[in-house]
Amino acid sequence: MRKIIHIDMDAFFASVEQRDNPALRGKPVAVGGTKARGVVAAASYEARQFGVYSAMPSSIALRKCPTLIMVPTRFEVYQQVSRQIREVFLRYTDLVEPLSLDEAYLDVTENKFGLKSAMYIALRIKQEILQETRLTASAGVSFNKFLAKVASGTNKPDGITVIMPDEAQAFVEALPIEKFYGIGDVTAAKMKQLGIHTGADLKARSEADLRRHFGKSGTYFYQIARAQDDRLVEPNRIRKSIGSERTFGQDLETEEEMLPELRRIAEEVAYDLHRLEASGKTVTLKLKYHDFTLNTRSKTFFSNVRTEDVILDIAAELLHSPAFPAKPIRLLGITVSNLSYGQQQSGQLSFPF
Question: Which residues fall in the annotated binding site for Mg(2+)?
Answer without folding.
Answer: 8, 102
